[in-house]
Design brief:
alpha/beta; nine-stranded mixed β-sheet; three-stranded antiparallel β-sheet; 45% helix
C-alpha cells in the first residue's frame, strides 16, 4: 500500500473518499475535530480509541459515540487503500479531482454539513454557472421526456447548467436537451471510470466534451443501490433549485426534492394529469407546498427568488455570469458608486476577490470607474 502524502490535501481527501461511504457523518465529525490529515494519520497508524478527545467520545447530547462500530466499517478498506491506484484510474479517463479547499470547489456543497462530500472526482469541466436540477422518473412517458428535453434546452441557452443523474428517462432527456443548449452535469452513483448505465456511454461522452461527469467515490467503484439514494443529496446541494418533471409516488426523484427542501433550496414540480401514474408524485409534491412550474420562466423565477438577482440583471437574454461575479454586482449600490472596500464588506468577500470580479464586470461592460470608485452602468 502506498501511504498518502500527508502534506497533500488532495491525497488526504482522496484517501477519505476511498475509506468511507458518501455522507458518512462519523468521518466528518472525526475530521472536523482532528483535521483531515491528522485524522487519517491516526486511522492508518493505530486507530487507538483511548487517544480520542472527550469531544469525540461524547456527542452533543452526551451520548457515547459508537467508534468501535465505525472502525469496523472503515478498517477493511484501510487495509486495501491505494490512493495512487485511484489517481491512475482517474488519469486513464482524463479526469481530475477537487476537494473542499480547492479553488474550484462548489461551496454550495458545504451546506450539507456533516454529510458534505470529501472530494469530487470529475471528468470534463464543472463550470461556475448557476445550476438547476431536473429530475424525474426512469420509466418516463414520451410527453415527460419531451418536456424535460425542451426545458433543459431553454435553461442551458440562458446560461444555466442543468444537473441530473445520468439515468434512464427524465435524467437522460434533461442531459440531451441541455447539450443542445449549453452545459450539463451528470452526478454518478458509482465512480467516473465505471459509468452507469453502460447504454448511456455515448451520452456520457458528449457530456464530458462540454459539461461534467462527477462522483464522490473513487473512479473504479461500482454504482450501488444505496449510492443512488445518497447521490440525490449531492444533486440537490449542487443546484440552486431543483425541479421534478415527472414522477410516480415512489420515484427516487422525490428524494432529491426532499433534500433540496431540507437545504432551503427552491423546489418546483410540473403538474400532470390526475389519471397518470407518472404525474402522481409531482401533483402530490405540489399539494405539499412545492412550487407549481409550467415552463422555463417559472424555473428562472425560482432561482431569482433566493436573492441572487440573477435574472434581474441585464444578462437575461445572454450568458450568465459566474456566481461570485454576480454577487459582487448585487453588492454594488443601484445608484451612485462605491469603493472596493465598501463592496467587499457588502458582498462578504475579500478585497482581492472583489478586484478580480470587478475586472470581469468592467470587461463585460456592466460597471464603470468613477474616480477611485465603481458604479453600475447597465
Amino acid at each position: 500500500m502506498r501511504m498518502p502524502d500527508f502534506s497533500s490535501p488532495m491525497e488526504v481527501a482522496c484517501a477519505w473518499s476511498a475509506i468511507v461511504e458518501p455522507g458518512d457523518t462519523a468521518a466528518a465529525v472525526l475530521r472536523q475535530h482532528m483535521g483531515s490529515a491528522a485524522a487519517l494519520e491516526w486511522l492508518l497508524s493505530q486507530a487507538d480509541l483511548t487517544k480520542l478527545s472527550d469531544k469525540l467520545v461524547l456527542d452533543d447530547e452526551g451520548r457515547v459515540r459508537p467508534w468501535t462500530k465505525v472502525l469496523k466499517r472503515w478498517l477493511p478498506r484501510v487495509a486495501d487503500l491505494d490512493v495512487q491506484a485511484d489517481l491512475e484510474d482517474l488519469a486513464r479517463v482524463g479526469g481530475h479531482v477537487i476537494w473542499p479547499e480547492h479553488e474550484s470547489w462548489p461551496h454550495s456543497l458545504n451546506d450539507l454539513g456533516l454529510e458534505a462530500p470529501v472530494a469530487l472526482w470529475i471528468r470534463g469541466d464543472l463550470k461556475d454557472l448557476p445550476r438547476v436540477a431536473l429530475v424525474g422518473a426512469r420509466a418516463s412517458t414520451t410527453m415527460g421526456n419531451t418536456l424535460a428535453r425542451d426545458t433543459a434546452f431553454e435553461l442551458a441557452r440562458k446560461g444555466v447548467s442543468v444537473v441530473s443523474g445520468g439515468a434512464f428517462g427524465i435524467d437522460a432527456a434533461s442531459h440531451m436537451g441541455a447539450l443542445r443548449g449549453g452545459h450539463t452535469v451528470a452526478v454518478m452513483a458509482g465512480g467516473v471510470a465505471n459509468l452507469y448505465p453502460m447504454s448511456h456511454l455515448e451520452l456520457f461522452a458528449e457530456i464530458e466534451e462540454t459539461g461534467a461527469i462527477i462522483a464522490e467515490c473513487p473512479p473504479s467503484w461500482r454504482p450501488a443501490r444505496w449510492r443512488f439514494l445518497s447521490r440525490n443529496r449531492l444533486i440537490a446541494a449542487l443546484s440552486e433549485a431543483s425541479v421534478v418533471v415527472e414522477a410516480s409516488m415512489r420515484s427516487g426523484a422525490l428524494v432529491t426534492i426532499r433534500h433540496a427542501r431540507e437545504l432551503g433550496r427552491p423546489v418546483g414540480a410540473f403538474p400532470g394529469s390526475v389519471m397518470s401514474q407518472m404525474s402522481k408524485g409531482c401533483n402530490n409534491a405540489i399539494r405539499e407546498g412545492v412550487t407549481l412550474v409550467t415552463g422555463t420562466e417559472d424555473i428562472l423565477e425560482l432561482i431569482s427568488s433566493i436573492g441572487d438577482g440573477l435574472f434581474d440583471m441585464p444578462v437575461k437574454s445572454g450568458p450568465a455570469l459566474p456566481r461570485q461575479v454576480r454577487r459582487i454586482y448585487d453588492a454594488m449600490p443601484a445608484y451612485g458608486s462605491a469603493k472596493i472596500v465598501e463592496i467587499a464588506k457588502a458582498a462578504g468577500l475579500g478585497e482581492s476577490e472583489v478586484e478580480e470580479g470587478l475586472t470581469t464586470l468592467l470587461l463585460k461592460g456592466f460597471v464603470g470607474v468613477d474616480g477611485t470608485a465603481f458604479k453600475r452602468i447597465r
